[in-house]
Amino acid sequence: MLVVNNLVKKYGKKTAVDSISFTVNMGEIYGLIGPNGAGKTTTLRIIATLLTPTAGSVVVDGIDVTKNPLEVRRRISYLPEEAGAYPYMTGEEYLVFISKLYDPENYKDIAVEAEELSGLGDALKEKIKTYSKGMKRRLQLARSLAVKPRLAILDEPTSGIDVLYSLEIREQIRRYAKQHGITILLSSHNMLEVEDLCDRVAIIYNGKIIAEGTVKEIINKVSAYNLEEAFARLVRHAR
Ligand code: ATP
Fold this sequence. Notes:
Elements: E1 2-11, E2 14-24, E3 29-33, H1 40-47, E4 55-60, E5 63-64, H2 69-75, E6 76-79, H3 91-102, H4 107-118, H5 133-146, E7 151-155, H6 163-180, E8 183-187, H7 191-197, E9 200-205, E10 208-213, H8 215-221, H9 227-238
Parallel strand pairs: 3-8, 3-9, 6-7, 7-8
Antiparallel strand pairs: 1-2, 1-4, 4-5, 9-10
Helix pairs in contact: 3-4, 4-5, 8-9
The structure holds adenosine-5'-triphosphate.
């Protein structure tokens, strides 16, 4: 579903992504983890067609992101790290608006599904400017999944969301991936979440992939107790 090959991104003299390669199979949940500034968001934004790579290639569902970004956009949804929604719309209006953009004919079904997924209930009738950070995140995540993309790119999907709802969100991501054959690429700083959710993981440090595999493989590689410990050891070793 996704093939990233020797991807490089430079911002002036700074190399944010330094020749990384990985593939994500159809229906897989794949996690990118790494310390602050490692290059995760840059990688996700290139895959989402919002940034052009300096070198290398990214192919989504057989389509090259630089050659045919519009076709790629039809197949993906992207949840940015800091997604803004229109403050003067209600949550409900926003979900209808986004659903119409994706599918003008069947937008009602998508919007209803997104409303349910958001778990926001009566708050959907309120203006988004009155929402907490977590409520806005729930709205954004709901629209990212309800449109049923081929590939959902989720940059820190549960950041700012409380523990109980994070658990629900994980369950939703898992269920959606399975039920609708959606491939998920996500980044997260929450190792518990990644351990629980991801089929495979890549650890990025300083723009390079320093470890890749199933959570179990990564833990075993450095004889750690859990992913958090393995992550800390691998990153310290790479410094
Ligand atoms: P975090 O976990 O903190 O969100 P990240 O892994 O997502 O970090 P990126 O946002 O991809 O990291 O940033 C990678 C590197 O590129 C950092 O050194 C950052 O300062 C730099 N960078 C990111 N965006 C720009 C930009 N627009 N211009 C210049 N440098 C940038």
